[in-house]
Amino acid sequence: MDLSRVSDAVRSLTLRKSDSEKKGTFRLHVVTWNVGTAPPPDDVSSLLLLDSEGAAPDVYVIGLQEVNSKVLNFISDMTFDDPWSSFFMDTLAPLGYVKLTSIRMQGLLLLVFAQHCHVPFIRDIQASYTRTGIYGYWGNKGGVSVRLSFYGHLICFLNCHLPAHMEYASQRLDDFEHILETQEFETETAPRILDHKVLFWFGDLNFRIADHGMHFLREAISNKRFHLLWEKDQLNMAKKKEAFLKDFQEGPLRFKPTYKYDLHSDNYDSSGKKRKPAWTDRILWRVKGDAHDASDQEAEPEQEAEPAEPKEPEPSVRVTLESYASHMSYGISDHKPVTGTFSLELKKLHTNPLVIIQAEGEWSADWDALVTYSTQEPFPSSTWDWIGLYKVGFRSHMDYVTYMWVKDDEVSCTDEVVQVYVSRDEIPVLGGEFLLCYFSSNLKSIIGVSPPFQISRSMSAPQEGVTPESVNGMDKPDLLGSPDEF
Fold it and tell me: What pLDDT is recorded for position 329?
């Protein structure tokens, strides 16, 4: 085979980007919801903006608290995807989203999804957790996080469940500060949460509304005079006093307090305890190095014009809150979910994937096949890197039909192009539309995605309407043999 021809074909897939093309605005949709051990509802269209006429989010970040973590449920969820993860993957995958990663710590669950086109540019994905329940030994309270490089910019998402009850405001602050100080990632560029350029902090933070009695609270809420309650919100009060909170921003609380409701109702707690309503469920963000919002500062008196000074460079990432809302139609728990939709303006530091990959020639289970790839710039490759074969519309990187080890199955290599062998026994006999993904073990992410291609139906395929139990790798390999286990 003429590898120079293949090299030219691969290079033709890499396009130069102008400066204007390197600038982008992306929509990020964050969800926080204490689900109270309930199973997923029938529909989350409004929660995920699926029925919105606006542009679809580029990235979804979903943080749940109190996911059912009874022993039998938790053991099952360790072996298989938990019901909530499966539910969101089944909802978003048909719309072109891929689950990048997730992390679970007992009842805390954090999921990150991205549109298919962004996947090769989201790299160095890591997850971490910190237990704060029972003196740090129990994970019913604490924080789980995911950090990643988004087009070269470091972003961290932190989902927390902090201690409950009015009198534990100081404990909530202590626990959050402990999470910020001790949670670490295996990287030199941003080993701590606050080292990241952008941090989104959300969850059931459990802060309450102090001092006001029940009658005043309910009157203010029923008349939608929410501003009367803001000054006594424990988190708002803490932001004015605590240095480690000063750079966090939050949108105005122009929705009803999200706790505590009777199940399947818009009525606040009618039980004997009659818990006071509170904005326990929150979404905040922090941009490292950016000055405080000018709206928080008083205007300076006008002075005589002075010689113009050089303008400060524009921030590398600009975060703008588009909407901050609760969703009253969901009643499976005593909390209402809260969402924040953001726009992220940034310059793309990466405009080409690290790996260009494609299927070579026509594929069928009647003959062996080849995968061709080339690296576009150096990256920390590993003997554990692998290439997965996926059906179009796959849900996560673990949804491969089969996989090939990049090094073990290599058959030829030049300075620019590598070919990897695929046995006919690994190719689905029924055929269909597929694509290939290169997974980097060190970067813990997909760094190259091929164009979709057709696998022809094999001459040995069963008759129409007859589906064999296992045909040429169509059953996913045992989890113990998964590339992620190595």
Answer: 97
pLDDT band at 155 (very low <50, low <70, confident <90, very high): very high
pLDDT at residue 484 tops 60: no
179 conformational bin, left if phi > 0, alpha if psi -120 to 50, beta if neither: alpha
**Furthest C-alpha separation in the chain:** 87
Tokens 């499966």 identify what position?
86
Q: What pLDDT score does 391 carry? A: 97
Cα separation of 3 and 259, whole Å? 63
